[in-house]
Amino acid sequence: MDNRQATLELGTKPVGQLLMQYALPAIVAMTASSLYNMVDSIFIGQGVGAMAISGLAITFPFMNLSGAVGAAIGVGASTYLSVKLGQKDYKTAELLLGNAIVLKIITGILFGAVCLLFLDPILYFFGATENTIGYAREYMQIILVGNVATHLYFGLNALLRAASKPKQAMYATIFTVVINTILDPIFIWVFDMGIRGAALATILAQMLALCWQLSIFSNPKEMLHFKKGTYRLRADIIKNILAIGISPFSMNACACIVVIFINTALVRYGGDMAVGAYGIANRIAFIFVMIVMGIKQGLQPIAGYNYGAQLHSRLIHVVRLAMLAATVVVVAGWVTGQLLPYYCARLFTSDQTLINHSIQAIRVNMLLFPLIGYQMVVTCFFQSIGKAKISMLLSLSRQMLFLVPLLIILPPIFKIDGVWAALPASDGIAFIVTWVTMETYKKKLRTNAQQ
């Protein structure tokens, strides 16, 4: 089937089949990605110790910040590349690929160098204490040295998807999970490298996957491949990449700020073990969130096409199906978190104190989890139909507009219980705002359809 026929099917094929067709590969890739993030936490907790889990949790803002810088280029370049390939402007697409590679290398080196130079002050700012700084430092030193490989790996995976190679992008993700899972116990236990071993396993897995990605784009038989003369940076291309990438950059940067607020509040009112417990709770929730992200990725092209074709009934139908699928996923997450918190925590640690903290963290963090799927799908819906401002507002509402103020107000009154309470409270408020926004827009769609 050619690309034109596949595109036409977005407006004719049953939306249930379409959603399954587009979402399943994304769900597999997203699930693999979430497992990739869990592997280090499990091996570090079981192989290094409970305090190492807390040290790892301190590095989460680093991951968000690195992700923000990477997304500014990766998402911007891949989205712009999709447009140019759709326009059959292959010359610009090749220039875009070359420019994206150079930008990834430059930002990877700069980010790694600056963060290494000021590593300890940054970690203390992120909530590290004398008990956790050593673990966080050892982990991040390795991660930051390999930062260029990380940026290139994630960037090329996004470009593979944009170049109509979603399976290759999925394979690269699964490959890194498998290699990381194999190397983690070898480096941590056999070579006795501790938390540094986990970081080294992560970087080596990404480097091996990167070699395969580079081989794909180096093949001259591929429609889109590396070409001499495409690596000189061009202002017009960089401008377009950053114009698209500013939205995901902002969301990731805000996520970084929020985690800093959470970590510092947890350290102040609950100590290092509370930080580790939140790290574990976050990893458990992340699995189900990433599956919903896969559903969102499947929804996006279908919703965008049918909105553009003014097929509003199909648009509403596919959004409802995505909401239903997402809700089933998050309800499964809620059941897991409420009924099996001990076993979830036990995956990461055998320390009974950390397990007790984690049981509370998992249950409270996922208290209103069944509402999250709806909010994520609605946010994706507005992004798909070009309502970027509404989408961005809804994305940031839970984190910046509600969670941060609650983290400032509640903990001084209720101590550690106030920190935990802020998490589901922000979920509830954000859901109400999302629901009102969506219902208002649905009325507008019905009115337009009747005219």
TrEMBL record:
One Pfam family this sequence matches: MatE
Main location: membrane
Superkingdom field: Bacteria
CDD domains cross-referenced by the UniProt entry: MATE_MepA_like
Transmembrane parts of this sequence: 18-36, 66-83, 95-119, 139-160, 172-191, 197-217, 237-262, 274-295, 315-340, 360-382, 394-414, 420-438
Family in the record: Belongs to the multi antimicrobial extrusion (MATE) (TC 2.A.66.1) family. MepA subfamily.
Cited PANTHER family: MULTIDRUG EXPORT PROTEIN MEPA, SPORULATION PROTEIN YKVU
Name of this chain's protein: Multidrug export protein MepA
